[in-house]
Amino acid sequence: MSQLLWPLVRFLLLIEVAASVNFFHHRYEQLVQALFNVHNECPDITRIYTIGRSIQGRHLYVLEFSDNPGIHEPLEPEFKYVGNMHGNEVLGRELLLQLSEFLCEEYRRRNERITRLIWDTRIHILPSMNPDGYEVAANQDPDAIGYLTGRNNANGIDLNRNFPDLNTFMYYNEKNGGPNHHIPLPANWKSQVEPETLAVIHWMSRYNFVLSANLHGGALVANYPYDKAQEQRSRGYQRKSNTASPTPDDKLFRKLAKAYSYAHHSMHQSPTCGEQFADGITNGASWYSLSKGMQDFNYLYTNCFEITLELSCDKFPPQKDLEKEWLANREALITYLEEVHQGIKGLVSDENNNGIAGAVISVNGIGHDVTSGDQGDYFRLLLPGTYTITASADGYRPQTVTVTVGPAGPSLVHFQLKQDTIKGPMEKKAPATSLSSKALQKKVVPRAARKKTQR
Ligand SMILES: [Zn+2]
């Protein structure tokens, strides 16, 4: 483009990118309109798709950002943000709409940081996982709204207590041997989950998500797995101090949670909502234990690392606060997204350079594996350090390498596996658990302790 034309084009672009989301509480139709407005403004880098419908028939729309929307590009990680899982916790929903518009506008303004993010990442944004609950909450008189009105879906079910309980299998495996990753679902799981939960589980199975956050309200803290404690001694409603229930990736999860809390205007100072959290972060179980939550399910069933963000003391903040809240969270939302680019990633292929799907990537000393996606690419989030990594796949000889991970960007570590001609297919791994789901259900699993601030 000629040097003379460029200032004119930039000027026109700025005029065209008028704010379309604005700061107000979006009812369902307005939310849909806002998503399509962003898509129309940035058609080349966005796609809208639905992962299913709520009980009352509202679409669970996702807005995707990518330089190639609709396509998984090998070595480009998939990221997701999920908002409004509790219908009455609405700030996340509005922040995700603001974020969508921000990404689109800044890309068009050639903001280098945002452009790089969209080129290197496939970002999926689900502003509302519980649109039915939202409408119930939004219909209330703001001054008279009940604390839990609209929290649940239209069947009265809390979606963050509705995922299959894989922690029980994991704790069993911890004692008796067995994995804490890609734990199979119980046989009857589909009949036990709500349509919104089912849609999200199918979504997680379709995309090889690497990193995620689940946006809530009612407190100001970044909460990381596990949410469910191994033993829940308290059954009552009283508060109690729990012991932390860390994952094998505890240090990484703390870093991820801090990435958000420190980029947020005030979360790291933990000043509000009557509860103190050092650095503005907490292990879920050490706050209070909850069962069948979404973040634990991400970790135990998929390759995805998810944290739960509590973003405001007020679950349904007044409209006048929305702009201030956006400014308090904007940098944190972008910073957390960028966290998907760390550790190692690479391709697992055979001797003819065909990608091997489902290859297992193990890190010595961290008892939690990830697997490669359909095209053989894998992503393993890791803190800086030196690691011994092994790739293995059925019918191939495992390959082990030592790699040093630096603080910036992910290191590329490819594996080319040789066919195991001597032994034939690798010895089949022991099933995830030798205990039937029926037997597990008989084990006493007390209900999660409840308290006023419920994530
Ligand atoms: Zn919540």
Task: Give keywords.
455 residues; 2 domains; 20% strand; binds zinc ion; 4-stranded mixed β-sheet; alpha/beta; 29% helix
Account of the 3D structure:
One of its GO terms (molecular function) is metallocarboxypeptidase activity. It is found in: Secreted, Extracellular space. It comes from Mauremys mutica. It is an enzyme of class 3 (hydrolase). The chain has 455 residues and is an alpha/beta fold. It contains 12 helices and 16 strands. The strands form 3 sheets. An 8-stranded mixed beta sheet has the order 1-2-4-3-5-8-6-7, sandwiched between helices. Strands 9, 12, 15 and 16 form a 4-stranded mixed beta sheet that branches. It has a 4-stranded antiparallel beta sheet with strand order 11-10-13-14, with no helix packed on it. It starts with a helix and ends in a 13-residue tail after the last helix. The structure holds zinc ion. Zinc ion binds next to loops.
